[in-house]
């Protein structure tokens, strides 16, 4: 027989069944709110950040409109080819448009419809501005950029979902 150990408040009982060890308390930096993946998901899809995305979208629409409606846009804003300017502007707007709207079915179609309407509006206004002209190929470049913006958004959100699992 084994001699019985003295009972002490600091020593666990000498029984064969021991209590399961407690998990250490999580550090403040490991809480879900402070993990990089949680922060990334919040920025990409959180309701609070949606207001920031909307502000960025409005600023971009104003900037694109000013560049499109100015008779002589600054050379620093030119990518060297008019179609590249349209492609880049509308790709950016489509990405931001997706970020502005809550995730739901049909969101991409609404963004594409808005991009088409904005592209046609720009060309109609440019036809009335001295030194500018309307070009149907600009609308085609707008829509190609918008589709690319949607594709980049889809890949980015896939990456966010994968990283934040």
Q: Biggest sheet, in brief?
A: none
Count of spatially separate domains: 1
Beta-strand segment tally: 0
Residues in β-strands, percent: under 5%
Mean pLDDT level: 84
Gap from first CA to last CA: 53 Å
Order of helix and strand elements from N to C terminus: HHHHH
The parts where pLDDT drops under 50 for at least 5 residues are none
Shape: elongated
Share of helical residues: 55-70%
Alpha-beta content class: mainly alpha
Number of H/I helices? 5
Radius of gyration over all CA atoms, rounded = 28 Å
Write a structural description.
By secondary structure, the protein is mostly helical. It has one domain (34-72, 83-163). The chain has helices at 36-45, 47-69, 82-100, 107-126, 136-163. Helix 1 packs across helix 2 (47-69), helix 1 (36-45) runs antiparallel to helix 5 (136-163) and helix 3 runs antiparallel to helix 4. Residues 38-153 form the VanZ-like domain. Residues 1-37 are annotated as: Disordered. This is VanZ-like domain-containing protein. Residues 13-22 have a biased composition (Low complexity).
Describe this structure in a few short sentences.
The protein is mainly α.
From the structure above, extract its key features.
165 residues; mainly alpha; 5 helices; elongated
């Amino acid at each position: 027989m084994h001699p019985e150990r003295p009972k002490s408040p600091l020593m666990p009982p000498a029984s064969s069944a021991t209590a399961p060890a407690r998990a250490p308390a999580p550090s403040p930096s490991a809480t879900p709110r402070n993990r990089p993946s949680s922060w990334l998901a919040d920025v990409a899809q959180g309701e609070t950040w949606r207001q920031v995305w909307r502000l960025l979208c409005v600023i971009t629409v104003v900037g694109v409109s000013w560049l499109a409606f100015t008779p002589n846009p600054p050379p620093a804003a030119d990518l060297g080819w008019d179609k590249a300017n349209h492609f880049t502007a509308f790709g950016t707007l489509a990405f931001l448009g997706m970020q502005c709207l809550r995730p739901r079915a049909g969101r991409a179609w609404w963004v594409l419809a808005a991009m088409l309407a904005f592209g046609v509006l720009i060309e109609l206004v440019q036809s009335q501005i001295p030194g500018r002209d309307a070009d149907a190929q600009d609308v085609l470049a707008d829509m190609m950029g918008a589709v690319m913006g949607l594709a980049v958004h889809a890949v980015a959100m896939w990456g966010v979902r994968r990283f934040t699992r």
